[in-house]
Amino acid sequence: METSAPLASFTVIPNRRAVADEDRAALMEAPVFGKVFTDHMARVSWRDGEGWRDRRIVPLAPLALHPGAAVLHYAQQVFEGLKAYRHEDGSVWLFRPEANAARMADSARRMALPELDEGDFIAALESLVTADQAWVPEEPGASLYLRPVMIATEASLLVQPANEVEFLVTASPVGAYMSGGDAGVSIWVSRSYHRAIAGGTGEAKTAGNYAASMAPQAEAKAHGCQQVLFLDAKKNKFIEELGGMNVVVVRADGSVVTPRLTGTILPGVTRDSILTLLRDSGRSVQERDIPLAEILAGVESGEIVEVFACGTAAVVTPIARLVSDDFDLAVQGPEGESVAAEMLAGLTDIQYGRAEDPHGWMHRVV
Ligand code: COI
What we know:
- It is a single chain.
- By secondary structure, this protein is α+β, with helices and mostly antiparallel strands.
- The protein folds into two domains: 2-175 and 354-364, Aminotransferase class 4, branched-chain amino acid transferase, N-terminal domain (D-amino Acid Aminotransferase, Chain A, domain 1, 2-Layer Sandwich); 185-335, D-amino Acid Aminotransferase, Chain A, domain 2, CATH 3.20.10.10.
- The protein has helices at residues 21-27, 70-74, 97-110, 118-131, 207-211, 214-222, 269-280, 292-301, 339-351, and strands spanning 2-3, 11-12, 40-47, 51-59, 77-79, 82-86, 92-95, 143-152, 164-174, 185-189, 227-231, 239-242, 246-251, 256-259, 285-288, 304-311, 315-324, 327-330, 362-364.
- Strand 3 (40-47) and strand 4 (51-59) form a beta hairpin.
- The protein is globular.
- The protein starts with a strand and ends with a strand.
- Mean pLDDT is 95; it is low at 1-6.
- Residues 81, 210, 244, 311-313 line the site of 2-OXO-4-methylpentanoic acid.
- 2-OXO-4-methylpentanoic acid (COI) binds at residues 81, 210, 244, 311-313.
């Protein structure tokens, strides 16, 4: 495991109205995902011609945003999601923050936003987690979810890249993202909505992709499902990803398949980590186009034994049921330990410091 050197320095303005210890403990009891926020946020400002400036940790507070701010009208924004984990000795660690920094830079290029370099990105996270370390949960499975976001703040209704931008990071103590647990969640396969098209913004982590997933997500809910699975927009044939996480399929012979990154799929850090762990364990892993028909036939014949979702928020969540207008299929699951359970344990053992970190993924903060 790597320990970090100090990075760009952030000025800290402490929150004089920080939540009292006993109130914080109550808030951290069983937080709904992303509903509880810590005392501070990180903030860096950018102006065209001047670059990034005013690196600071400030009390969490609503933003003063001009009603003409470009982000409100044209959704010029990108975001990220990663977590800080507390180890048994009390130390606090980030998981692959450089991967999130790189993806945010990729997303920023697509959305014509300025790139924030890796040093500033990681320093913002480290400074915020250090200021709010009391908010990093101790319970197994819980963590501090960090949400970096970059927004176009220039007051301008011209459809053009904004010349004023803010980078912010908030932090939220979290447990599980989806209810369903070991038993698995139900997934609605959307036939009428698509998430992304070639040349669009599907591989960028940007608000519009998620906004577009809400009506299909509501459709999923109306059918008793927790999440929606999208098919490719060109042929309406290949599985792509869920509303906010990637999908992995396990065959009866132990091999694993997942949709290849076509440019319309978000390149998940958890996806990449799990594929790495699967390959480390000697499994055959294929990244390719997967027709929905192959999944349905495979689940029915027993050729496909598991389907699971993976993402920073979802970690590894088994999928127990696939539903659409013309099918309702239970995914049986394997006889013995599932690959989903093996991956959940393998990944979280590294994240919580219970296992070796052979790829140097962990980054110590405090
Ligand atoms: C994440 O897993 O971090 C995500 O961004 C997914 C979702 C909560 C939007």
